[in-house]
Design a protein that fits this description.
Chain lengths: 399, 471
């Protein structure tokens, strides 16, 4: 099996402000993100040869065809796809594979989501998600499903397995949220840009015990886009293109829902996608070789467990790294440098490309106040589904 | 010898102290508690629970008939008995019958079962009564009515109590009634209801029955008389020559309330649980007439009393509030949560899923032995395809592997307790935990399966299973 390493380059990216974009439609956000990417790559729209757009809840059931109308694409192929909350990452993957195959030279990947037109707080229709957790489709024979309810079960299991009291465990998780909020204050495109304290996190209303309101990411609108080209063409667009080093997705067979061997203190899909991506990129010691990461902090416990699944922290020991500040902006391995889902919110179909956008800007030295010194390999971890049955993408990019 | 081979009872976990109701309305105080079905229960789910208890240790393939009786069946047109038979995994050729419309429907169905069994060749007959009746808020019926269910297995071999005699009269009277268009039970003026209804019909019928049976009050260890309240019971017991303190007692009214059609059934089960071989029981139920039976307890009682169903159901309980009761019964309009309307389930999909969804069958891989729910055509462990036997989960016990208490999930009883349930004999199902005390749920808490109502959309009620801490 060949690797995608160094076959594809990112030469342009765009991203809207994430947030409650009351004044912008799905199409408005797509246009803004895509035209920023065109401008960044310095290409006219007509040069794009194929488009993949990821969206999960927006403009259903047919976002592909209208997209050509929105962007006035020149009779080019457009495909809409979804892969849960990792949808944008999969759009990126499809575009990257198309370029790597030589079937097209310039491909456009878009991720976009309009959640705030729904009139609901939280995610719009449970019934779509219900198909994921119902024992049989269309019967609605299912547990009462919400995302925080499922992720909170990881916290319960983790605290129990490693002997943390709820207070100890929640305090550790709160520190992760405080870190991300601090980073987010330096991100102009973030939804939330304010510092929070551990005390505020602990005292926030309980959403799904043991998680409180500030353990959860927000619900936002947003769009992001990337233009990918063949490696040998890359320098025609940019002197310093960003290269794709690995792009792996692992979709689990929902063992966590059915198999008692799965103990909810890890997400096997993250581990497997991470292993595959490290192998593809030639990474032997991720803690040392990865210089920065954007990970899926939909909930505080999710980020904590990612540290262990991606082998940044030893099993059961994320505590040590949180207390040592390893993943802070000034730490050994900065994680969620832009503030993560915690500050950007989570427009389902857009998040994966927003993560890559941050890594891309860091490598290009465009990250402003939160710019790291000489970033090398960057990793984006995007989680779809729930801990018991997930879709995980791990993307590694680098100079 | 024809009689009752087994009994099963179900009383909901929640109790409402009657003084709570009185306090809310600044009304008169009535002693005792009433059993209150949770928001996810109805007469069918309670009936299923009682039947499961009744059939514990018995061969379900010998059950050739199932009669479900209630005044509060969820459907006016659609049989509850067929739904319950499927849920219990009874044979497709089991006769299913619904009997409704009367508080006497349970005891009348017992007569049907007796006739069927006496007719020969029909095997055992399961009779189930379940009721969840509503009285208007701030009324005496609301105070008195409780929710519950019971089931008896009627057969012609090895009864725990033989049914020796039966006598019945029917009686046309507007004393207690509810048109199909109404939610709440009505009644005529209490003096008329008492004097021309219960206090007249019951003594007359029992006296006629005594004459026909050739027996009198002195022949019975106990008189199990289903009365709407203790005052009626005391009155009629005295009239008939029973000692109200020793022979004709009703332990239920103060503990769980008047259980409607299920009341005479649960009352008899409670009496059987306290009986010795040789005890003779007079069993009387009232409603649009009166049914009278004479029973003799046999040696077999000793083999089933160990499960202590009534005692367990009465003792495992938790207090709830009147506010919750109003919400669970949809008696107050609440501001709806800001969430999308629920989509209706597909009748087609429900039909395909009836064995797995209603009877809670998963699969057991015949290659590697791994059990899994729902049925996996490709085994999650060894990946072999279509090599499985159906595997029942409903009777299995489990432990909570992990859980959360979700306040965001829409529920009439927040927070929703969600758990990964690991079964002692293998397998895991993700399930809600119902009838729980939030503060007592831990990793490792033992749970059992309970049949519950889920969403109701487009006239279709979706039933499935939840876990509950072992009662």
């Amino acid at each position: 099996m060949q690797s995608i390493k160094d076959k594809v380059a990112i030469v342009g990216m765009g991203c809207t402000k994430f947030g409650e974009n009351w004044g912008m439609s799905f199409d408005d956000m797509v246009i803004d993100a895509v035209y920023e990417a065109y401008e960044d790559a310095g290409i006219p729209p007509a040069d794009v040869q194929a488009v993949w757009i990821g969206s999960y809840w927006s403009n259903l059931p047919a976002p592909s065809q209208p997209l050509s109308t929105t962007l006035k694409l020149d009779y080019k192929p457009v495909t809409r796809l979804e892969n849960m909350c990792a949808t944008a990452s999969d759009a990126f993957r499809n575009a990257a594979y198309a370029v790597a195959s030589g079937a097209c030279d310039i491909a456009l990947a878009i991720g976009a989501e309009k959640l705030k037109d729904s009139g609901y707080s939280g995610l719009p229709t449970d019934d779509i998600a219900m198909g994921l957790v119902s024992t049989a489709p269309n019967t609605f024979r299912s547990r009462n499903f919400t995302a925080p309810g499922h992720f909170a079960m990881m916290a319960t299991s983790y605290f129990n397995k490693y002997g943390l009291t709820p207070e100890e465990g929640r305090t550790l998780l709160a520190k992760i949220m405080v870190k991300n909020h601090h980073n987010g204050t330096m991100s102009p495109k973030a939804h939330f840009r304010r510092e929070i304290t551990v005390e505020q996190v602990l005292k926030a209303p309980v959403i799904a015990w043991p998680l409180g309101l500030l353990d959860c990411c927000g619900v936002s609108d947003g769009a992001a886009a990337a233009i990918l080209v063949r490696k040998d063409m890359a320098k025609n667009f940019k002197p310093d293109p960003v290269y794709v080093k690995a792009m792996q997705i692992a979709v689990g067979p929902s063992e966590g829902y059915m198999n008692p061997k799965h103990d909810w203190t890890g997400v096997k899909e993250t581990y497997r996608a991470g292993q595959a991506a490290y192998a593809e990129a030639g990474v032997n010691d991720p803690r040392k070789e990865i210089t920065m990461a954007e990970v899926h902090d939909c909930f505080s416990i999710t980020e904590a467990i990612v540290y262990e699944d991606l082998q940044f922290s030893p099993r059961g020991r994320f505590k040590d790294d949180v207390e040592a500040g390893t993943f802070e902006l000034t730490g050994e391995l900065p994680i969620n440098i832009d503030g993560g889902l915690k500050c950007f919110g989570h427009p389902i179909g857009a998040t994966g490309l927003r993560m890559i956008y941050e890594l891309y800007n860091q490598i290009l030295g465009r990250a402003g106040q939160r710019q790291l010194k000489n970033p090398g390999l960057g990793l984006a971890h995007n989680l779809g589904g729930t801990p018991g049955g997930a879709t995980i993408s791990v993307t590694i990019v680098g100079p | 010898m024809v009689g009752i081979k087994s009994y099963g009872v179900y009383v909901p976990f929640h109790r409402l102290d009657r003084t709570e109701i009185a306090k809310f309305w600044s009304g008169y105080r009535v002693p005792g508690e009433k059993a209150v079905a949770n928001f996810d229960e109805d007469s069918v789910t309670m009936g299923v629970e009682a039947c499961r208890d009744c059939l514990l240790g018995f061969d379900i393939n010998a059950v050739r008939g199932l009669c479900f009786t209630s005044t509060t069946s969820p459907y006016a047109e659609k049989q509850s008995a067929a739904l319950i038979a499927t849920t219990l995994d009874l044979s497709r050729t089991t006769r299913t019958i619904d009997v409704s419309g009367s508080l006497r429907s349970g005891t009348s169905a017992v007569r049907v079962a007796l006739d069927a069994v006496n007719g020969g060749g029909s095997g055992d007959f399961l009779v189930c009564s379940s009721d969840l009746r509503l009285g208007l808020p701030n009324g005496s019926k609301e105070m008195e009515f409780g929710d519950g269910a019971a089931a008896f297995l009627i057969g012609d071999s090895d009864p725990i109590a033989s049914i020796d005699n039966a006598y019945t009269v029917n009686n046309e009277l507007y004393d207690v009634y509810r048109p199909v268009t109404d939610q709440f039970v009505r009644s005529w003026e209490d003096r008329f209801v008492r004097e021309i209804g219960f206090m007249k019909v019951v003594p007359e019928t029992v006296r006629s029955a005594f004459k026909e049976f050739g027996m009198g009050p002195e022949d019975f260890t106990r008189a199990v008389i289903s009365a709407p309240n203790p005052s009626y019971l005391g009155g009629v017991a005295g009239k008939l020559g029973f000692d109200p303190k020793s022979q004709a007692i009703d332990p239920l009214w103060g503990l769980v309330g008047n259980l409607g059609a299920a009341h005479p059934m649960v009352l008899l089960a409670a009496a059987l649980e306290q009986s010795k071989p040789g005890d003779r029981i007079l069993w009387v139920s009232y409603g649009d007439g009166c049914d009278v039976y004479a029973l003799t307890v046999t040696e077999n009682i000793l083999s089933v009393q160990g499960k202590r169903s009534v005692e367990r159901m009465l003792n495992s309980k938790s207090s709830t509030s009147y506010q919750k009761y109003l919400r669970w019964r949809d008696l107050v309009s609440f501001e709806p949560p800001n969430r999308p309307r629920e989509e209706p389930a597909s009748a087609v999909a429900l039909h395909r899923d009836r064995k797995c969804g209603l009877a809670l069958f998963g699969s057991k891989c015949t290659e590697c032995g791994t059990v899994q729910y729902p049925v996996q055509r490709v085994c999650m462990e060894c990946r072999s395809k279509d090599k499985f036997d159906y595997y029942p989960f409903a009777d299995k016990k489990g432990k909570i592997a992990t859980f959360s208490h979700d306040s965001l999930a829409v529920s009439p009883d927040p927070p929703t307790t969600l758990a990964a349930v690991d079964f002692e004999e293998g397998g895991r199902i993700m399930m809600d935990v119902t009838d729980r005390d939030v503060s007592k749920i831990e990793v490792g808490t033992p749970v059992e399966m309970t049949f519950r109502r889920f969403r109701q959309t487009g006239g279709i009620t979706v039933y499935w299973w939840k876990s509950r801490p072992v009662r």
